[in-house]
Write a structure and sequence with these properties.
With 114 residues, the chain is mostly beta strands. The chain is 0% helix and 58% strand.
Length: 114
């Protein structure tokens, strides 16, 4: 199983970006999928998660600004990020647990300039 993240880049404060994560397997076979982010010198933290049934949950710092979604037919996971702030600058990773095994995509860098 492979997860391929894309969509990162440089954006100004208040701007938007949409991250995509292409899965090589049927995403309904993942028990859950999520976006994590990692700040320089720190551990990864949860940004958003979506369950197999479509329930979503968000980290406190992104609630109301980020939206996680998926396209089952495209086998894709998305993270719409609005009203971005400099403190959102991080490497973003998509992840999912497939048949009990967690898989991670490579990170995509999001840089928000002030």
């Amino acid at each position: 199983v492979q997860l391929q993240a894309s969509g990162g880049g440089l954006v100004q404060t208040g701007g938007s970006l949409r991250l995509s994560c292409a899965a090589s397997a049927n995403i309904l076979e993942f028990s859950g999928m999520a976006w994590f982010r990692q700040f320089p010198g720190s551990q990864r933290e949860l940004a958003a998660v979506i369950s197999r049934t479509g329930n979503t949950n968000y980290g406190e710092s992104v609630k109301g600004r980020f939206t996680i979604s998926r396209d089952i037919s495209e086998k894709a996971l998305y993270l719409q990020m609005d009203n971005l702030k400099p403190e959102d600058t991080a490497v973003y990773y998509c992840t999912g647990t497939y048949r009990g095994t967690p898989y991670w995509g490579q990170g995509t860098l999001v840089t928000v300039s002030s």
